[in-house]
Amino acid sequence: MITATIFEAKTNLSELVKSAQRGETVIITSGRDKTPVARLEAMHPVRKKRLGALETPGFVLPDAFFEPLPEEELKLWSGEGE
Q1: What is the pTM of this model?
Q2: Where does 2-40 sit in CATH, by number?
Q3: SS3 at position 46
Q4: Which is more confident, 7 or 47?
Q5: What's the Cα-to-Cα distance from 43 to each of 21, 34, 57, rounded to whole Å?
Q6: pLDDT 10s digits, 65-82
Q7: What is d(CA 25, CA 11) in angstroms, rounded to the nearest whole number?
């Protein structure tokens, strides 16, 4: 959790928003006694998504993946074989 005075929040708003996007909670305080007056939180924390196949350890594309398609399949892809 991060705390910031109103002055600090105005000065560093971009950085505080980035912290909130990473999932941190920012408490904004006011006055000499630093009374909490507001909370800054992300609506939807940013999460990097990865393809499921890439998360599987040991996933390898077979060599056949890079070979040209057979003529019959090429015709289907071009709409000739329907």
Answers
A1: 0.53
A2: 3.40.1620
A3: coil
A4: 7
A5: 8, 25, 32
A6: 888 988 888 888 888 866
A7: 18
